[in-house]
Amino acid sequence: MALIVHKYGGTSMGSVERIEHVARKVAGFRQQGHQVVVVVSAMSGETDRLLKLAKSIAPRGNQREFDQIAATGEQVTIGLLALALEKMGVPAKSYTGWQVPIRTDSAHMKARIESIDAEKLRADCDAGLVPVVAGFQGIDENGAITTLGRGGSDTTGVALAAALKADECQIYTDVDGVYTTDPRVEPKARRLDKITFEEMLELASLGSKVLQIRSVEFAGKYKVPLRVVSTFVDGPGTLITLEDSTMMEEPLISGIAFNRDEAQLTVAGVPDRPGIAAAILGPIGEANIEIDMIVQNVGADGTTDFTFTVHRNDYERALEIGRRLATELGAKGVNSATDIVKVSLVGVGMRSHAGIASKMFTALAAAGINIRMISTSEIKISVVIEEIYMELAVRTLHKAFGLEAAPSVA
Amino acid sequence: MALIVHKYGGTSMGSVERIEHVARKVAGFRQQGHQVVVVVSAMSGETDRLLKLAKSIAPRGNQREFDQIAATGEQVTIGLLALALEKMGVPAKSYTGWQVPIRTDSAHMKARIESIDAEKLRADCDAGLVPVVAGFQGIDENGAITTLGRGGSDTTGVALAAALKADECQIYTDVDGVYTTDPRVEPKARRLDKITFEEMLELASLGSKVLQIRSVEFAGKYKVPLRVVSTFVDGPGTLITLEDSTMMEEPLISGIAFNRDEAQLTVAGVPDRPGIAAAILGPIGEANIEIDMIVQNVGADGTTDFTFTVHRNDYERALEIGRRLATELGAKGVNSATDIVKVSLVGVGMRSHAGIASKMFTALAAAGINIRMISTSEIKISVVIEEIYMELAVRTLHKAFGLEAAPSVA
């Protein structure tokens, strides 16, 4: 008998029929003898509807009130799922965040979970009940309702699994697992049976939007085995584990991520002296613009080219600041591009295998793709290329690293 | 400076525009130097929508879950109104039932308030804040959300006013006060400046659906002055007070209520012996059928006619039980009618004035209206007549008791 946390997202909760479908899935697990704790999101679109209503009154109103309003979305779905379970003969009991309680800090709309008292949920499980817990929400020390920010229900699921010392946290969603790359770009993309937390973090942050990144961090920190599974198609999904020990047997590369939302700026020919990076990044950061990649090349003439990428929405503002800084710093000028894309190769196997980068660059060169920018980490190599080559690059790399085939070792 | 509780119903909360209108009203009171605590209902139609959703899954599901779901309606409007107030420069803070807390028993969907800890609300008022409290809901000793049943927001308003020792509880609604009778039936109906709790109870229970009856009982019990005012039209409304001391100066009759939802059953010619009433009413009550009027006449032949009224929805079931009982008790048979209506004259002045009943019956007789059933209480005389005579009866009595004119004494 295992204790499993199930988390169902908004799409899975999108209608009475779907809620009843979820209830059947939970009932099935219980029939196999497992204990199940369920975490749910609001019906798809409901959180947006509620926040839109609040913003129509006061776009920058008190965030405590926004949370008070937004948290009702999950309060409805927990009740509905509990009713659906009981109708199927599965005793169930719904819990809002404060009823558990799930204690958070007071950062409304982006609160962080501080502690969970899982005592009632454990007692319910032992008494044969299925607790149905509202995701995305908690309570702060003043008794105010807080929300965890977008996708926070994944984090609730993982945090509850950690607090309950559950055997697994299963995230039910509308995809049947984590893929080697986006199947819409490369139809030969393959579902991964398992992947490490680190790889998942790189894939998630790079645009494979299967799981909220904070939930993966959380799962890694508390060593909660995490599984991404489809609500609608039966299957094993993808297990996200520590398993660093079996690393040698892992395939070299787990997947290929890409991100179309970036823009590149280069402050060219900056007289090279200590503090240049801070002089450029400081004002960008102060303007609340997030920077993704940063590359600096020292030239032969005592000047340096400083290149970074920002979200396309911030491009115009970043360019303006860049131009001002170029003048102030005596740089030659600013080059920039918005028709670019970042493609990243991710895999823990990289750590212990040389030659991955060169194999990647060779494959791209053979396909006639020019690389504008390179950045590497321990388990990731990212390149910035022209956007028109994106699909070609993804497919080329998918083939070069043999991702279509099932891994040769399990 | 007075402390006033405002209660706004679903119609007043029906849209963003209306919520902003309410915020302006509250802001106006504050500008006059008053402290205001606001109680609100869910947006009109929202509670029904939520309960329908729940019932579509499990029509007779766990009522704890129904409450969990239904309580979200007010949680949204408290947040929205707090935002609207703050936008107008009025500091505000929303409270769900459990955040106050408003403690109730555990009778889900029809909970009763046991106690209110008004400390936080009082501190808010003293700090210049307007607390906005969710009506209709509370929390039981197990930490479960409860609801007070339909119209429960009125009760919340009165209970809060009692707990805060407020100077007045103002119920804002879509009518501008309590009338001598329904203006749709008698266009000459007049708004009452004031009325006693007892009269209001009789008028409310008899179908003048301005206020939830429990809230009036509560207001009477805790001596909270209650005022019914229109959200949309400025005016003094109707004050509901104790003021029994000035009874001699009160008009004899306050109003005329009527109820079209009843059906009449007579078990005729029952052999008269002790226990007959219980023998008939017992099985009706066990079938969960509520009885309104009860009249028993002892005949000359040692038999008795036992007549009672039930809601028309329960008529078929009551008739079936009545027929079975008639056979068992050796009665002559069962007569019944659904095309009846109850018309009631209400007024505390009745207590000290003889002749009201005879004046009433004379007026009805003069209009050619036959009385089928009579029942009296200290401050009320009800008659059951044929439904087609209802409007005629109401107008006849309205005129006979001089209700069109302003009362001759204030």
Write up this protein:
The structure is a homodimer of 410-residue chains. Chain A is of the alpha/beta class. The first copy, chain A, has two domains: 3-174, 3-Layer(aba) Sandwich (Carbamate kinase), CATH 3.40.1160; 256-400, VC0802-like (2-Layer Sandwich), CATH 3.30.2130.10. Chain A contains twelve helices and 20 strands. An eight-stranded mixed beta sheet of chain A has the order 3-6-2-1-9-11-12-10, with helices on both faces. A four-stranded antiparallel beta sheet of chain A has the order 13-18-20-19, sandwiched between helices. Chain A has a four-stranded antiparallel beta sheet with strand order 15-16-14-17, covered by helices on one side. In chain A, a hairpin with an 8-residue loop joins strand 4 and strand 5. The radius of gyration of chain A is 24 Å and the shape is globular. Chain A starts with a strand and ends in a 10-residue tail after the last helix. Residues 245-249 of chain A have low confidence and may be disordered. Chain A binds chain B through residues 16, 19-20, 50, 53-54, 56-58, 61-62, 64-66, 68-69, 71-72, 75-76, 78-80, 82-84, 86-87, 93-94, 96, 98-99, 143-145, and chain B through 16, 19-20, 50, 53-54, 56-58, 61-62, 64-66, 68-69, 71-72, 75-76, 78-80, 82-84, 86-87, 93-94, 96, 98-99, 143-145.
Described by the principal axes of the CA atoms, the overall outline of chain A is globular
What quaternary form is this?
homodimer
Enumerate how many helices of chain A there are, as a single number. 12
CATH topology of the largest domain in chain A: Carbamate kinase
Number of DSSP strand runs of chain A: 20
Helix content of chain A: 25-40%
- CATH hierarchy class name of the largest domain in chain A: Alpha Beta
Cα(first) to Cα(last) distance of chain A is: 26 Å
